[in-house]
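Q: Give me the 3D complex with DP6.
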Amino acid sequence: MTTAIVHPNIALVKYWGKRDKALNLPSTGSISLTVDRYETRTTVSFGSDHDVAYLSGRRLQGKEHERVFRHLDLVVPGRPPAEVVSANNFPSAAGLASSSSAFAALTMAAAASAGLSLPIERLSELARRGSGSACRSLWGGFVEWRRGVLADGSDSHGYPLAPQSAWDLRLVVAVLDPGQKKIGSREAMNRTTETSPMYPVWVNTADLDLDEAREAIAARDLSALGAVMERSALKMHATMMTALPAIRYWQPASVAAMEVVESLRAGGVSAFWTMDAGPNVKVLCEAHSADAVARALAEVAPAVEVLGVGGPPRLIP
Ligand code: DP6
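A: Here is the predicted complex, encoded as structure tokens.
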């Protein structure tokens, strides 16, 4: 029995769309920031009577149950029955990146519990098969998920860019709606890929965004990183809004939060927003301006949380 404790990551340059659904290979690379405070704790014990999984005390059934145990089959082929107990200390499935920590934690706990000692790149590749963004949650700090070129996907995993200690930034989360989202990111990205006339633009401009983000992280240049981060989020949401039927995660409060960020910037505060597959707005800023950013966002958001840069996963035997 092993417990893995893993922080989620938030994409600065987004992953949106797959080139291979079976292997879960992305159409483009992406770059993320690991956050602290939020975590998933997952314990895997082999040798139970039958497969059973709990998420925050709720027993998983149907498709959710299948997704967990199909993933265990992949990580530990020929495994015995298992019990999986998982909990997040933050809202699940509200665009707060819960699948990124969930599948990283499940992969790590399962491999360790089965006594497999796999290289971290291989663990990342396995986590990717569970949920793409999970492959970026194994190092902490800033991580790139390279698109890869190999047909078997063995070069499409996380690559660390800079550790937790490299850059003391804050991500201020305006929690606008902690409820479950209406349409999950997987379904949304597949519909976008298949129907948005803007999708080719997304794919064709991704490498430029990745180059700029990598350089900005290396130079610790928040204005440059913030600019490419907002552009990547805007482009991703533009492809969704032009899908058929259109997908729009933005709510009036999301736009109000964006306006708060614009006025902070006009007042000289270096702050930049991003949004994922949910209405919440996440604002990247320097550590010393986090309080001012949080106070300003509290004018439009019922709850605001200030997160720092998170470290790598931990395993507890
Ligand atoms: C908007 O990693 O949840 O958060 O691979 O289908 O499980 P699957 O998708 P998932 O999608 C994340 C989408 C995103 C952007 C990102 O994290 O890069």
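A quick observation: Helices lie at 62-75, 98-113, 120-130, 185-195, 199-219, 222-241, 252-266, 290-298.
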